[in-house]
Amino acid sequence: KKQAEKAVHQKKEQSKTKCRKARRRHINLVAEFNRRQRKNIWLETHIWHAKRFHMVKKWGYCLGNSPTEKSYRACYRAMTKHCLLQDLSYYCCLELKGKENELLKQLARICSTDTGLTFQEACCLSGRFEGSLCLYRADRYPEDMLGPVTFIWKPRDGSENRQLWIWVHPALKQDILKELKAIFQCTEPEEMCITEAVTTSVQEEKQVEVVTSLGNKRKKEDKEGEKAVPVKKIIGDGTRDPFQSYSWIAQTTGIAISDRSMEILRYRLIGPLSHSVLTETLKAASVQTV
């Protein structure tokens, strides 16, 4: 009797955690990844970098800081003889839409020809080349510099309305966005992303309930997890509140400013074989005119 009681006390309780196969299912991985990037957004290449780099949390993102192996010679060799690719998707993109004359008139207030190229440079205005310049607060040059940016115009399509993309560092985004909204007088929110954020959070809560409810089930009994709907991936960036508007419009001029951060991927290719890599990777689309 004593031996039987001893055996009962020593008997291990059945583990409530699911087996590794169940934890590694796609639906459970998506829920776990979304939970881990609520505060710091992941780039599209985060998984690849996390296995090979020391990650740091900066500007609301998880970024690869330094490689875990000594790859300095390999990177230098790729830059000088082959091709090296960098993920710059954490850079923020601000989109401006409106009449070309009105855009150039107001943008001239935050830059100067004394520093080099401006938004109205002929080679950049055609949309063939990307330009770079330093922005200042409106009518404050050479004081109150905001920071360096790069920009590219969408090629003309025959109308007077143009589209401009301004790429800024996430540390400078809020100041530059505030200044752009001030000079164009864009105060009215055009679009709101509250619905998307709320639905995502509701889906996450439901997904957590499904995962917790299935915590005691194992293998064959865990059939409901396969039918559950995967959680939608988080859209946005670490510099924007998901419950705030991401697009503004001016009632007088019709100029619209949109925050396109983390909606457009951006990569940088360095090396003599960069064009060869792009030629072999990308294929021209067949444009059909009706």
UniProtKB/TrEMBL annotation:
Q: Residues in domain Pop1 N-terminal?
A: 4-98
GO biological process per UniProt = tRNA 5'-leader removal
Which GO cellular component does the record give, naming just one?
ribonuclease MRP complex
In its UniProt entry, what is this protein called?
POP1 protein
User: What is the native source organism of this protein?
Assistant: Chaetorhynchus papuensis
Lineage at the top is: Eukaryota, Metazoa, Chordata, Craniata, Vertebrata
**In the UniProt record, what gene is named as encoding this protein?**
Pop1
